[in-house]
Amino acid sequence: MEVRDPLYGLIEYNDKEEQIMNTRLFQRLRGIKQLALANFVYPGAHHTRFEHSLGVMHLCGRISSELELGEDKIKILRLAGLLHDIGHGPFSHVSEYIMDKNVDKSILTEYKAHNAHELMSIILIEQNEEIRSILSDEEQNNIIALLQKQPKRSIEKDIVSGPLDVDKFDYLRRDSYFAGVEYGKFDLDKVIESMTPVELGRDGTQLGIKEEGIHAIEQLLLAKYHMNVQVYQHRIRRITDAMLVRGVEFALEERIEDVENVYKFNNDSDYLSNFIRYDDTTLAHAIVSKSNGWAKKYFRNIINRKLFKEIFNIEINEGNFDDGILLMNARNPSDDQMEQICGRVAEILKVPRELVILDRKSTSNPTFKDYRVKIAVEDIMVKTRLGKRKPFAYVSEIFSNPSVDPEKEMLYIYAPLDSMAIRKERQDFIRDNRENIMEIIKEELI
Hints:
Layout: E1 2-5, E2 9-12, H1 15-21, H2 24-27, H3 49-66, H4 71-83, H5 93-101, H6 105-111, H7 116-127, H8 129-134, H9 137-147, H10 155-160, H11 166-179, H12 188-194, E3 195-199, E4 205-210, H13 214-232, H14 235-253, H15 257-263, H16 269-275, H17 280-290, H18 294-303, E5 309-315, H19 324-331, H20 335-349, E6 357-364, E7 381-383, E8 389-391, H21 392-395, E9 407-415, H22 423-445
Parallel strand pairs: 4-7
Antiparallel strand pairs: 1-2, 3-4, 5-9, 6-9, 7-8
C-alpha cells in the first residue's frame, strides 16, 4: 500500500502501519497544525502533524535500510517514527509551554521524558487501547525505548531522536515547502548517504557522518538557522504564539473544563481519553464558546486576525544591561517582575494590564538553543577517511569558527494598538515611548 507525499513521492506502508494510521488517536493529528498559526504569515502553512509523522516514518525506514540494520529494527524504527508525535497537544509546541508547567518533574523522570509532549507520546503508546490492540508488548516496549532518554547512545535512538534525527530532516523540508520559502532546503540524499556508525566505547554507538558529508551537514545547519529566523521566529509568528499561550492561561484561570482536560495532567484513563478529544479547532471553539473573560477576548482576536503589535524590542546583552544583576534578571525575569513591567507599560498605552505580553526569546546562529530543535555541532561525530573520529565543529571550516555561533537573546513587548489605524502613527508612538519603556524595564529588573 502507498500514499503520495509532496516531498518523497510515494510512501509505502504495511498493514500494521495502516491500522495505526486509522486509529482515532492518530487521525487526531490531522487537526493539529505543524506550525500553529504560521499560516497568518505564510498562507500555505496548513500542514499538520499527520503528514509530518508519515514523513518521519518513511525516513526512519530509508535511513535504517541504508545502514542495513535488519528487518526487525527497520520495522520498529518505522513504527517509532509514525508514533513519535502522537502526544502533541493543540497548536503543537506553542501550548507545550503550558503543559510543561503543569506536569510534575517526577513524572518526567519516571517515564524518562524530556517534556510533556514526549511524556504524552510514551503514555499513549503504553496505555491507549487502540494502540495496545495493534502492537505486541515487545513492539510497544521497543518503540517506547526509542522515544525515552537513555544513558547510552545507539544508532536506532539517534535516528529517531539525536543530533541528526529524521524529525529535523522532515520538518525542515516540509515546513519550507508549505511555507513557500527556500530556506529549509538541503541535500538530504547526500546526508543519508554519508551517515555511518561511530563507536563511542563505553557510551555506545553514535550515528555520525563520513568526511565527504561535511558540506551537506553545513548546508543542513544553515537551513536550520534560516528557517528559525525567517519562519519559526518571524515577528508575526512570535506574536500569535504569545497570544495563544496567554489566551490558554486565562482559560485555565477561568477553570474552563475543556482546557483543563488538555493541560491539567493526570496519569489516569479519564485524562487520556479526554486529552485525545482536542485539536486546534475544538480547543479554540471551546474557549470562545465557554469563556466569559480575557480568554475569549484573546481567541476572538486571533480568529479575526486582530493581532497585537510589537511595541518594544531589545537585545539582552552587556551593552544594553550594563549591571550584572540587571543582565541576569533580564535573562530570567521573575513572574512578579514581568507583572510589574507589563502593568506599567499598560499605563503608558492606556490599555488593561491583561493585554500586554512580555516575551523573551533566544536564537542562535546557526541553531536555536532549545533541546527539542537544536542541532548541536559538538555532538555530531565525523569519521575521517583515515578512520579518525572528530567532532564536526573541529572539522568544518565554517563551524570551527566560534563567531558563527553567537547566542542572541531578545526581550519583546506586545500589546494591541488598534486605535492607531495608520502605521506611521503607531511607529511614531512606539519610537516616542521607547526610552520610557526601557527605564521601566531597568527599574523593575534591578
